[in-house]
Amino acid sequence: MRIGELAQRASVSVRALRYYEEQGLLLSTRSPSGQRHYGEPAVDRVQLIQHLYSAGLTSKTIADLLPCVDAKVSTPESRARLTFERDRIDAQIAELTQARDKLDAMIALTGTPASGCAYV
Amino acid sequence: MRIGELAQRASVSVRALRYYEEQGLLLSTRSPSGQRHYGEPAVDRVQLIQHLYSAGLTSKTIADLLPCVDAKVSTPESRARLTFERDRIDAQIAELTQARDKLDAMIALTGTPASGCAYV
DNA sequence: CTGGGACCTGACGTTGACGTCAGGGGCATG
DNA sequence: CATGCCCCTGACGTCAACGTCAGGTCCCAG
Q1: What is the pTM of this model?
Q2: How far is Cα A98 from Cα A74, in angstroms, rounded to an integer?
Q3: Which one of B65, B67, B69, B93 is separated from B77 by 20 to 30 angstroms, measured CA to CA?
Q4: Which fold would CATH assign to domain A1-59?
Q5: What dotted CATH number matches B1-72?
Q6: Chain B residues with CB inside 8 Å of A68's CB?
């Protein structure tokens, strides 16, 4: 498929896909005229990339780790890195949970009619 | 206390505190020569601001919501906003949890060469 | 009174993941 | 062969939360 279709199917922009390729995260075969073509697995790969981005990994980190996943091999460094990122995400989840509780407290504080609520 | 001490006690940079004031998140009294002075509650307030930032709220959102918390008063809009942000954080936690599980799978896939390698 | 921290106000620099625009080609359809 | 849509490569713009630098002020100890 061409880049437009992949973009639609993976719910990302065409620009993002070109950026992923620029960062070494996504490969494409080129037609003689230079147009990018992708196979079916590209859809899943893009979604994996999106997941890792939304988990707060940078392009460089993803670029370092994806080849290990592709090759299904790991070095001590890549394992340490994966574990490090996993722990970072755990910490971030904890932080978000705490922030959510703070927000709940704010909602309770400002939102209960008993504690003085100004309806407009 | 002056800005340097507040920065230390709240574990943020001096620049960040000036930025918070610029964004309307943090007030200060000024000495005749223009230096900022803060009371004890400023420490907690800065930490609350930090929590909200780390939860992904923007300066503008925080600026909109903090006065409601200060006044312990809410409008239907502010409650909707608080609830919206709370739900957004919940979704983000779910996303992070999913990403963490993906990372765990990657660790399992690449990290145990002895066990069979499943295809993704 | 003199040195040296801590502080002040601009104002430009940084980083990451793209958005967007300019200028030009590819290709199927009428 | 023209038209309309998709594609290409640069390359500059964006946004947020600060970092950093320049040039000047404040204040306390010695």
Answers
A1: 0.82
A2: 34
A3: B93
A4: Multidrug-efflux Transporter Regulator; Chain: A; Domain 2 (1.10.1660)
A5: 1.10.1660.10
A6: 110
